């Protein structure tokens, strides 16, 4: 407990030392939802990341114990745990990157609408604290449904005058990780050497790997060569859940850790990292869209857009996914309006009560 109590002070002292000795000081990560299956595995991977010098774990319960457990791991990053909503500001203090993995996993037969209702409160509760405590932090949303929750998060941040489209991301790295793995099986090469852009959104119908722009080159004669891989990527979550009897937490943790590492490299101005992610975009007529992004000191340095040219079948699939993605974005924005109306009513009620007392 003493280790946890002194976390904030040690962290700030650590930052002061690093500011005087190195430029790579953008390295404090807060994981919201650290007690879940993804959160624990992700936190372990981040504790092993040499560029993460301070790791703050938050959840409604068990976060302090998990942090204490991880504090015995022989890496140099400081670690602290925080529980209950009133401790969230302390968890977020000084954060450079905030990763949100909290919320309910998708259960069998659950629709995106049902999942949105289950998990919207995670965004509604956490965004105001981020806006107040660490408004310049990069925010990586993993909680599903990403296609709706990222637009919702943007609207909540706007109400707090803390929205920067270059600093808000919907994580889709797991789609690229899976695509690289499946392509490496076909090419018989090391999966880490494969590059493939995955655009669109993060739902089964909106994920689109662009296989004609794979490196090393994957020979695609027609859509019959591509569709089995695209389908495999889109069905991966269901396939794992059916076999495992639980959501695919480990590939998610691995993928989110990779994305977080790239964000940190970008903040430090190192390596010109490029990752696909779901962000506010003008690339298409969808307000939010996943494309390759060059990451830098302020988050998105450049949106690299949709790879060109697309094969005919890829262009057709892109057009097919657009209505679904637009609808998901619309639902997130509509949910934000409901929340805003509710808050306005509550504020008016509070003012009325105060007036009556006077």
Automatic annotation (TrEMBL):
Record's GO cellular component terms: mitochondrion
One GO biological process term: tricarboxylic acid cycle
Class of the enzyme per the UniProt entry, highest EC level: oxidoreductase
Record's catalysed reaction(s): (S)-malate + NAD(+) = oxaloacetate + NADH + H(+)
Sequence segments annotated as region (Disordered): 336-358
One Gene Ontology term of the molecular function aspect: L-malate dehydrogenase (NAD+) activity
Residue span, Lactate/malate dehydrogenase N-terminal domain: 28-170
Keyword terms: NAD, Oxidoreductase, Tricarboxylic acid cycle
Membrane-crossing segments per the record: none
Top-level taxon in the UniProt lineage: Eukaryota
E.C. designation(s): 1.1.1.37
UniProt-annotated binding residues for NAD(+): 33-39, 59, 119, 252
Domain spans labelled Lactate/malate dehydrogenase C-terminal: 175-334
InterPro entries named among the record's database cross-references: L-lactate/malate_DH (IPR001557), Lactate/malate_DH_C (IPR022383), Lactate/malate_DH_N (IPR001236), Lactate_DH/Glyco_Ohase_4_C (IPR015955), Malate_DH_type1 (IPR010097), NAD(P)-bd_dom_sf (IPR036291)
Protein family (similarity comment): Belongs to the LDH/MDH superfamily. MDH type 1 family.
PANTHER family reported for this sequence: MALATE AND LACTATE DEHYDROGENASE (PTHR11540), MALATE DEHYDROGENASE, MITOCHONDRIAL (PTHR11540:SF16)
Subunit structure, interactors included: Homodimer.
Record protein name field: Malate dehydrogenase, mitochondrial
């Amino acid at each position: 407990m003493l280790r946890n109590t002194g976390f904030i002070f040690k962290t700030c002292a650590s930052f002061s030392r690093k500011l005087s000795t190195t430029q790579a000081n953008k390295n404090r990560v807060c994981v919201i939802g650290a007690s879940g299956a993804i959160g624990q595995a992700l936190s372990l991977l981040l504790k092993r990341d040499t560029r993460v010098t301070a790791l703050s774990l938050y959840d409604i319960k068990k976060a302090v114990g998990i942090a204490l457990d991880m504090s015995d791991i022989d890496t140099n990053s400081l670690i602290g745990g925080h529980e209950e909503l009133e401790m969230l500001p302390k968890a977020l203090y000084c954060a450079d990157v905030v990763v949100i993995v909290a919320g309910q996993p998708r259960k069998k037969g659950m629709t995106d609408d049902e999942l949105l209702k289950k998990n919207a409160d995670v965004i509604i509760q956490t965004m105001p604290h981020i806006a107040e405590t660490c408004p310049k932090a990069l925010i990586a949303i993993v909680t599903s449904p990403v296609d709706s929750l990222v637009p919702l998060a943007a609207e909540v941040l706007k109400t707090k005058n803390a929205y920067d489209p270059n600093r808000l991301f919907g994580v889709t790295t797991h789609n690229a990780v899976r695509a690289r793995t499946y392509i490496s099986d076909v090419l018989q090469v090391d999966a880490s050497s494969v590059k493939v852009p995955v655009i669109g959104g993060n739902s089964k119908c909106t994920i689109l790997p662009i296989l004609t722009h794979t490196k090393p080159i994957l020979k695609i004669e027609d859509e019959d060569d591509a569709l089995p891989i695209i389908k495999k990527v889109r069905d991966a979550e269901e396939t794992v859940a059916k076999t495992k009897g639980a959501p695919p937490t480990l590939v998610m943790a691995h993928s989110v850790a990779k994305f977080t590492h790239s964000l940190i490299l970008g903040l430090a101005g190192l390596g010109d990292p490029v990752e696909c992610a779901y962000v506010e975009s003008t690339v298409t007529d969808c307000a939010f869209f996943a494309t390759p992004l060059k990451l830098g000191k302020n988050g998105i340095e450049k949106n690299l857009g949709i790879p060109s040219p697309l094969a005919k079948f890829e262009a057709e699939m892109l057009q097919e996914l657009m209505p679904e993605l637009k609808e998901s974005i619309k639902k997130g924005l509509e949910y934000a309006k409901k929340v805003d109306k509710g808050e306005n009513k509550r504020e008016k009620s509070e003012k009325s009560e105060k007036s009556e007392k006077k």
